Amino acid sequence: MDKFYQKHHAKLKAIALILLLVIPFFLHTAAMHGSIFQVKLFLALMIGTMLFVMNKG
After folding, report:
1. Structural domain boundaries of the chain?
2. Which of 13, 25, 35, 38 has the lowest tally of Cβ within 10 angstroms?
């Protein structure tokens, strides 16, 4: 896994930062429509992305 991360470090970092910008908008939309499942899904994605950025960023 470390070899994969070393090889694709820049791409993964860019994708993670884009996700950190995009996920809150999807989360807001899901909350406005009242979909509990989607809210929980996007919260889990945001938490996972934040943990990835904190560990590898």
Report:
1. 31-57
2. 25
pTM of the model: 0.78
Interatomic CA distance for residues 49 and 57, integer angstroms? 11
- Count CA atoms within 13 Å of residue 13 on its CB side: 10
Which residues, at least 6 apart from 10, have a Cβ–Cβ distance to it below 8 Å? none
Q: What is the largest CA-CA distance in the chain?
A: 42
CB-based burial label for 45 (10 Å; 0-12, 13-18, 19+): middle
Cα separation, 42 vs 53, whole angstroms? 16
